[in-house]
Amino acid sequence: MAADDVTVRVVLADDQDLVRAGFRVILESEPGIVVVAEAADGAAAIRAVEQYRPDVVCLDVQMPTVDGIEAARRITALPDPPAVLILTTFDNDDTLFDALDAGASGFLLKNATPEQLVDAVLTVAAGDALLAPDVTRRVISRATTGTVPVVAPDAAVPGLTERETEVLRLLGRGCSNAEIATQLFVGEATVKTHVSNVLQKLQLRDRVQAVVWAYEHGVVRSGG
User: Cα dist. 123→1, 58, 69, 132, 158 in Å?
Assistant: First the structure.
């Protein structure tokens, strides 16, 4: 992100002071990111979000008073909520899906590199979901368990234009906006408009839900 770009305002929530300090140093080394507040538990994180109105809140999972999952659920229920990025040491499906169900836009392990942390914050701040390929596969696996596709991959989705259906199909395959733009030979701004229209028309919260919807309804099928 260039220094003259819009500043991304971040709230950091973790019960370990050293972890928060380290994350602050990493994030504020990136021009365009500023940490506006820190919190040592989920309740304080919610209050910080209400007070500072950040673009992104980074939440640890295990925190006293209110844990990160419950904090994410309450924060995403606020009017005009920030993007929620879950930072955790727990790499298991229960934590992952609890976070996604709570409205998190991203899920990052604490052993990620500093560059990955910065990229994650910028990604969710831009309105994209942070779904690494292995996470996408797990989302797809959970979404397709026991479901029967009801829309053939080459069929239009009722309520969507042909181009919006193409965008949904690519979303379901885990493509980023840049990758969708390349495949459809359009600009990223156009892709963002299509993605917004898809989410609005299908009444979906975010790209994570779009991936699940695409697989549940057969717009994309495993391996195809």
Answer: 11, 13, 20, 12, 30
pLDDT in tens, 4-40: 457 999 999 999 999 999 999 999 999 999 999 999 9
- Give the integer Cα–Cα distance in Å for 136 and 105: 13
Specify whether the CB–CB gap between 96 and 138 falls below 8 A.
yes
Q: Determine the residue type at 30.
A: E
33-63 per-position pLDDT tens digit = 999 999 999 999 999 999 999 999 999 999 9
Given a contact cutoff of 8 angstroms between Cβ atoms, the answer to whether 195 and 177 are in contact is yes
Give the list of residues 6+ apart from residue 207 with CB closer than 8 angstroms, or none: 105, 128, 129, 131, 171, 195, 199
39 beta partners: 13
